[in-house]
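Practice problem 4.
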């Protein structure tokens, strides 16, 4: 059995009610150690779910307003699991999350599904969304589903000579070779880190691509606060 194009369209409609979108998919090779599907048998296909820009934010905020104060340690992850899990149940799939332990190779899956490559910041560069997108989960199917072939894309970072994303951080946390996690975290938590806490990573905001999808300051502040608690 192969689920038709209508299955993907139905999933897209269900996700759109929460500001989420399908983010491409792929078929596991016959000799690949695929994760389990809904029944425990190896999955045949994966369909990634995520966002472009901050479209889920108002949906998430409405949900969060109905939760007891400080009752959820990771509210965005909890919301994503609930929403994507309900869609998975509706379409006979198993939902998995980037935060599941042991970790699943979500970045490799995304590169496989959408043919994207990492930016110097590690975030995958999208030809339309720039750095302003995310993956919130995946649906694993034990049956074949219709999956459009991903388009070959230009890696925008290869066309960017100035690399402003490597020149805006006050503590030079990012370089071509590494991410200075300790330096970044210390700065964000310290007295000089207020611009980062209020408006997000300065290096990420310096990237000129996908500006129309840039997260608003309150969304970036939310993510930065989550990072600073690590």
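Answer key:
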């Amino acid at each position: 059995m192969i689920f038709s194009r209508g299955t993907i369209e139905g999933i897209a409609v269900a996700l759109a009610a929460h500001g989420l979108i399908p983010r491409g998919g792929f078929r596991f090779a016959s000799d690949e150690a695929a994760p389990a599907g809904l029944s425990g048998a190896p999955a045949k296909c994966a369909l990634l779910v995520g966002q472009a820009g901050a479209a889920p934010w108002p949906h998430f905020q409405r949900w969060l307003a109905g939760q007891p104060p400080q009752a959820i340690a990771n509210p965005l992850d909890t919301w994503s699991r609930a929403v994507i899990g309900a869609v998975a149940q509706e379409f006979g799939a198993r939902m998995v999350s980037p935060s599941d332990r042991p970790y699943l190779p979500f970045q490799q899956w995304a590169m496989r599904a959408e043919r994207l490559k990492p930016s110097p910041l590690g975030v995958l560069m999208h030809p339309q969304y720039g750095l302003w997108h995310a993956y919130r989960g995946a649906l694993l199917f034990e049956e074949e589903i219709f999956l459009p072939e991903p388009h070959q894309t230009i890696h925008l970072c290869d066309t960017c000579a100035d690399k402003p994303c490597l020149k805006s951080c006050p503590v030079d946390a990012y370089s071509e070779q590494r991410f200075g996690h300790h330096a970044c975290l210390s700065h964000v938590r310290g007295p000089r880190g207020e611009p980062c806490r209020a408006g997000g990573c300065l290096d990420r905001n310096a990237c000129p691509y996908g500006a129309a999808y840039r997260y608003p300051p309150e969304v970036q502040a939310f993510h930065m606060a989550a990072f600073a608690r690590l």
